[in-house]
Specification:
Elements (H helix, E strand, L loop, with lengths): L2 E10 L5 E4 L6 E4 L2 H21 L19 E8 H7 L1
Antiparallel strand pairs: 1-2, 1-4, 2-3
Helix pairs in contact: 1-2
Length: 89
């Protein structure tokens, strides 16, 4: 899979910043601002994805672009290009 778009849920952290979960993948990350959290989410998805590829596993397709979330949470779509990320490394 070269390109994909995954939904990410941004939860305000008590100590500031945002905790980020990717409902379709078993990963989490965080950032001090929304912009940083989006960058961290993209990095986390790409690192996890190319690691899965390297181990011969299939990367799951996104299932929903509108995941359930609480009233304080923000949902954003994160576009990733696994091949471009691999080349950049």
């Amino acid at each position: 899979m070269k390109k994909a778009v995954y939904a990410a849920v941004f939860t305000p952290a008590e100590e500031g910043g945002y905790l980020v979960s990717i409902p379709d993948l078993p990963i989490n990350t965080q950032g001090e601002t929304i912009a940083e959290a989006i960058d961290m989410a993209r990095d986390a998805i790409c690192i996890w994805g190319i690691s899965e590829q390297d181990m011969g596993r299939k990367i799951p397709q996104p299932t929903s672009l509108s995941p359930e979330h609480g009233p304080e949470e923000i949902v954003a779509l994160i576009d990733v290009d696994f091949d471009a990320y691999r080349r950049a490394l």
